[in-house]
Amino acid sequence: MERHLYSHMSAEEKDKSGLKKRCETCGREFLDKKAYAAHILAHKGQQFACDQCPKTFHWKQGLRRHLVNVHGKASKNSLKDS
């Protein structure tokens, strides 16, 4: 029930409630628990490397978007973990 009530709070109410989360790595603050959890995974998670240039991405979707926008269309062979 507490999580449900939290979802209905405004950003200002969340801030006043002390529920704001701060990333210990970079200092970025989050009011949303899911966004905070995803951000932490980005710091700790695996990297996905482009096989056509030196760029790396925290999320496979970021690599797919890069491959389509920069190099043309993404192929299954282009998606590799680094």
Automatic annotation (TrEMBL):
Keywords tagged on the record: Metal-binding, Zinc, Zinc-finger
Molecular-function annotations in GO: zinc ion binding
Signal peptide boundaries: none
UniProt domain C2H2-type: residue ranges: 21-48, 48-76
Name of the protein in its database record: Gastrula zinc finger protein xFG20-1
Species whose genome carries this gene: Orchesella cincta
The organism's taxonomic lineage, starting at the top: Eukaryota, Metazoa, Ecdysozoa, Arthropoda, Hexapoda
